[in-house]
Amino acid sequence: VVSTQSTGSSGINxxxxxxxxxxxxxxxxxxxxxxxxKIVADEIQTxxxxxxxxxxxxxxxxxxxxxVKFKMMVEKSDGNVYGTMHGGLGxxxxxxxxxxxxxxKCERWGISTDIQxxxxxxxxxxxxxxxxxxxxxxxxxxxxxxxxxxNQEGELLVRxxxxxxxxxxxxxxxxxxxxxx
Length: 181
Prior knowledge:
Layout: H1 10-47, H2 50-57, E1 59-64, E2 67-73, H3 87-106, E3 111-119, E4 128-138, E5 142-151, E6 156-165
Antiparallel strand pairs: 1-2, 2-4, 3-6, 4-5, 5-6
Helix pairs in contact: 1-2
């Protein structure tokens, strides 16, 4: 903490200390939220099923409450007969990544009621893509989210919108077997 007596400008130094403290606390909260998202990602993989395969390809690169950014390499097994990312994978990414964004803000998983997807450009096998899920609004009953998938050049490939019913209980997470980065 900076001494306010030596400069005579206690308002400036006190405000600086307050801002430093708020940034520190906010940073720790963001780190905890990112850790929660990592735990949820691990839980999805541990549970198996359809989402586990998709989640196993994803790496979290940014996470704040209401927005999560992932990256992944489009592999041959993710492709279609044209050598580009299969549309079904694009739909799964919109579902999964926007759901994780909703979870990061609302702390509930929800149940999908509507997904809309627009395919704008193909992602060739062997190329890296970035997926950004965003919770646009989370309420008591419904949550609205969006998801954008870009190629490594920053071009928009897929745009999705996702609505979820939020009348589900909070998810239970077993934290004992998770390794955090």
